[in-house]
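User: I've been trying to design a sequence by hand for this structure and keep getting stuck. Would you show me what you'd pick, starting by listing the structure so we're on the same page?

Assistant: Good idea, let's start from the same input. This is the structure you sent:
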């Protein structure tokens, strides 16, 4: 606390990211990909590491937006990029949500949403997940200043189908619906194609998870060109150069390496299904996941204790001390060896 802080700063409760430990721990806590990104991406970053760093990067990220547009099957005018999808989301809250009515998002979802709402002075209401921890989109059909949810949801991994999202969009034509597809490549169905049918749909994606580039900070949004223009207006009122030269070069090469991407997603999904079965064998209740993590409840429900016991054994997972989910652990799918470390540590608990 300082008397120099603005009233806004004093009122904030910032997002708390998962720990990035200095010690040698088996790190299954922040949903990073457990293996190296595309070697073509790393080479492109190396190739951009030269005297051209003297110059500012392309403020519009024209080539990167074209690469994203190609992968997504849309036009460049329908693509926005930012310094990680967290920054994209911040601009979305500022540019596209209406302050007159409460924003709606699930009671259990990405914990950055309430943080951005507070930062930008937006009122919000949370909508409970159903008893199976699924987002029930029928429950969002009421007056709102915008709707946002993650699909697959975080930290549950549970997915909703594109048909349900299309119904919501049709029933909610007057405010923007944002679908945060951070994990979609691990088994969800992207609704990017629906942006041509619904001018109020914005889809947010990231290269941090399925492309294995969390350290590069590249996120994107797809939507009607008028929504994208709104985001650009905010971006150019905040930071004209959110993506540096290395990030733009690396991201383009990563998007072009389709072979690496397909193999990596496939391997991850196989590991996820194997790990889920191993956890169920050990008495865990595991929600069906379409993401690169599992949300799992030990049979006795004391997840905080298991979290601490695992940490003592060098395995770091994530526990949220929040109502409804405090009996669960969120476990990132690691390499087979990392998952085995987790399983061995659990067996050691007896
Ligand atoms: C990881 C994550 C993000 C943020 O990703 P960055 O692109 O690394 O900022 C956004 N939304 C959800 C649901 C996430 O899990």
């Amino acid at each position: 606390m300082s008397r120099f802080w603005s009233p806004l700063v004093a009122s904030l409760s910032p997002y708390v990211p998962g720990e990035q430990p200095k010690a040698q721990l088996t790190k299954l806590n922040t949903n990073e990909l457990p293996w190296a990104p595309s070697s073509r991406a790393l080479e492109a970053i190396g190739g951009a590491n030269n005297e051209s760093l003297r110059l500012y990067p392309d403020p519009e990220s024209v080539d990167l937006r074209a690469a994203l547009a190609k992968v997504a099957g849309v036009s460049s005018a329908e693509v926005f990029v930012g310094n990680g999808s967290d920054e994209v989301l911040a601009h979305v809250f500022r540019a596209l949500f209406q302050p007159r009515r409460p924003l709606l998002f699930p009671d259990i979802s990405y914990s950055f949403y309430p943080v951005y709402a507070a930062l930008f002075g937006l009122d919000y209401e949370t909508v409970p997940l159903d008893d199976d921890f699924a987002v029930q989109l029928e429950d969002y059909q009421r007056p709102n200043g915008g709707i946002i949810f993650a699909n697959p949801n975080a930290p549950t991994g549970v997915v909703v189908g594109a048909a349900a999202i299309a119904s919501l969009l049709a029933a909610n034509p007057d405010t923007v619906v944002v679908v945060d597809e951070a994990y979609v490549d691990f088994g969800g169905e992207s609704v990017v194609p629906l942006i041509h049918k619904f001018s109020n749909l914005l889809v947010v994606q990231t290269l941090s998870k399925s492309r294995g580039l969390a350290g590069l900070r590249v996120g994107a949004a797809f939507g009607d060109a008028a929504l994208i223009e709104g985001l650009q207006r905010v971006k150019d009122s905040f930071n004209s150069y959110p993506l540096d030269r290395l990030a733009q070069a690396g991201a383009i090469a990563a998007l072009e390496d389709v072979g690496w991407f397909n193999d990596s997603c496939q391997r991850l999904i196989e590991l996820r299904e194997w790990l889920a079965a191993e956890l169920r064998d050990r008495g865990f209740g595991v929600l069906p996941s379409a993401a690169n993590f599992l949300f799992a409840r030990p049979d006795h429900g004391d997840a905080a204790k298991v979290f601490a016991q695992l940490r003592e054994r060098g395995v770091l997972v994530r526990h949220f001390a929040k109502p409804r989910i405090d009996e669960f652990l969120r476990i990132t799918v690691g390499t087979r060896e990392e998952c085995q470390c987790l399983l061995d540590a659990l067996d050691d608990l007896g």
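That's my pick for every position. To get oriented when you compare it with your attempt: The pocket of pyridoxal-5'-phosphate is lined by residues 84-86, 110, 150, 154, 180, 182, 206, 208, 214, 219 (CB under 6 Å). The chain has two domains: 7-36+259-349, 39-257.
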